[in-house]
Write a structure and sequence with these properties.
The protein is of the alpha+beta class. The chain has two domains: about 110 residues, ACT domain (Alpha-Beta Plaits, 2-Layer Sandwich), CATH 3.30.70.260; about 140 residues, Muramoyl-pentapeptide Carboxypeptidase, domain 2 (2-Layer Sandwich). It contains seven helices and twelve strands. The strands form four sheets. It has a four-stranded antiparallel sheet with strand order 3-4-2-5, covered by helices on one side. A four-stranded antiparallel sheet has the order 9-10-12-11. The protein has a two-stranded antiparallel sheet with strand order 1-6. Helix 4 crosses helix 5. It is elongated, with a radius of gyration of 23 Å. The protein starts with 8 loop residues before the first strand and ends in a 5-residue tail after the last strand.
């Protein structure tokens, strides 16, 4: 599958762009009504995103970046028309600060489920995954591991709560079906659980396109410390006992994927 852009900003030089944020009840034919209105006025939708409600029945949020370059329509007139659509409860226009550039500057904080989230691009993660190593050497690797481990403990707690809501009590299933899926959906990489046992903890996990190790390609050695620590933290929380994770294959040293060995033995 191809990548999925969640950037919430758009750069289209010399284009007349606006952002629109809608909130309302999720109903059938909402998209068709909105799309029909925009098509009538020759307004191009450059970006469209939905924020799911946490609970069924809560309002749905829609973010759209619209291109008015080829139309004589005014954003104010479209907003008034949109207010008459049964779905729309609230609407807000995002004005461009620079022609050809628009960003969602009104949605804050960002959320993943009920938790606050931030978006950190690879040019930012490079700073602490790669450049921190240049400044601190192996000490940076230890810092990255424990940052990941502590985060993993919190992720594991959250995944266990999700499992409880879904009636899942088996910790291995929680990791396979919830933890691995969450790992993928937030963009860390594509996690595949080859095998996993709880008593005693042992197994093998494979990660394709790992964001951390991708930054270390050409280093000639295993590069995963943040993700390795994160995985150890999640499993430690789920299993209720210390779990060690060792990287045995890595794209940073030329392997086609990263692979992690799960054990009970403490390995720094």
């Amino acid at each position: 599958m191809s990548s999925f852009d969640i950037g919430r900003f758009l750069v289209c030089p010399k284009r007349k762009l606006y952002g629109v944020l809608l909130r309302g009840e999720a109903k059938p034919n909402v998209l068709r009504e909105l799309a029909s209105m925009l098509a009538e006025e020759n307004v191009i939708t450059r970006y469209l995103s939905f924020s799911r409600p946490v609970e069924v029945g809560q309002p749905l949020t829609v973010l759209a970046f619209l291109d008015f370059t080829e139309t004589k329509a005014r954003i104010e007139d479209l907003v008034e028309r949109a207010k008459n659509i049964d779905f729309v409860e609230e609407i807000k226009v995002i004005e461009p600060k620079v022609k050809g550039f628009i960003a969602d500057t009104v949605s804050n904080p960002l959320k993943i489920g009920e938790s606050r989230a931030i978006l950190l691009r690879d040019i930012g993660t490079k700073g602490f995954v790669v450049d921190l190593r240049k400044r601190l050497g192996s000490a940076a690797e230890a810092i990255l591991y424990y940052l990941g481990f502590e985060a993993g403990l919190e992720f594991g707690k959250s995944h266990k709560q999700i499992g409880k809501k879904l009636g899942i009590q088996d910790n291995v299933q929680i990791f396979k079906d919830i933890s691995a899926s969450m790992f993928i959906c937030v963009g860390y990489g594509i996690m595949e659980v080859i095998r996993l046992e709880e008593n005693p903890p042992k197994g093998r996990i494979r990660v394709y396109n790992c964001f951390e190790c991708e930054l270390g390609k050409g280093s000639g050695k295993p590069y995963s410390h943040l993700v390795r620590g994160m995985t150890a933290g999640v499993l430690t929380k789920l299993f209720g006992k210390p779990v060690a994770v060792r990287e045995v294959k890595c794209i940073a040293k030329g392997d086609s994927y990263c692979e992690y060995e799960i054990t009970t033995e403490e390995k720094p």
